[in-house]
Design brief:
- The chain is built from four helices and five strands, in the order E-E-H-E-H-E-H-E-H.
- With 111 residues, the chain is α/β, with parallel strands linked by helices.
- It has one domain: Transcription Regulator spoIIAA (2-Layer Sandwich), CATH 3.30.750.24.
- The N and C termini lie far apart (26 Å).
């Protein structure tokens, strides 16, 4: 699992590559939340284009960040062009509550 968490103005850009599963979601959650709360960032952009696998714990990770964002008056968006990940997001219902964009630039324009 590759994880990059970078601050861009008032946005936290989280890039994930590899497998997001029960083996690593807790580590990913801790790193995202640490940056989010320490820097009082308003919005999160999750770049999922590099994921090769995602299970229900990955869905839970996204939902938990969504809840944090709502409580703090921010927005969360996802970047994805991966058909496999799109199917998981669709089945989980996340596409009904979180907008998805094909590029980071488009996501930043709409956050």
């Amino acid at each position: 699992m590759y994880l990059s968490v970078e601050k861009h103005k008032n946005n936290l850009l989280v890039q994930l590559k590899g497998e997001l599963d029960h083996h690593n979601t807790e580590m990913v959650r801790q790193k995202i939340d640490k940056q989010y709360f320490e820097h009082r960032i308003k919005n999160i952009i999750l770049d999922l284009r590099g994921l090769t696998f995602m299970d229900s714990s990955g869905i839970g990770l996204v939902m938990g960040r969504y809840k944090n964002i709502l409580e703090n008056g921010g927005k969360i968006v996802m970047v994805n062009d991966n058909e496999y990940v799109e199917k998981i997001l669709k089945v989980s219902g996340l596409l009904k509550i979180i907008n998805v964009y094909p590029t980071i630039e488009k996501a930043m324009e709409n956050i």
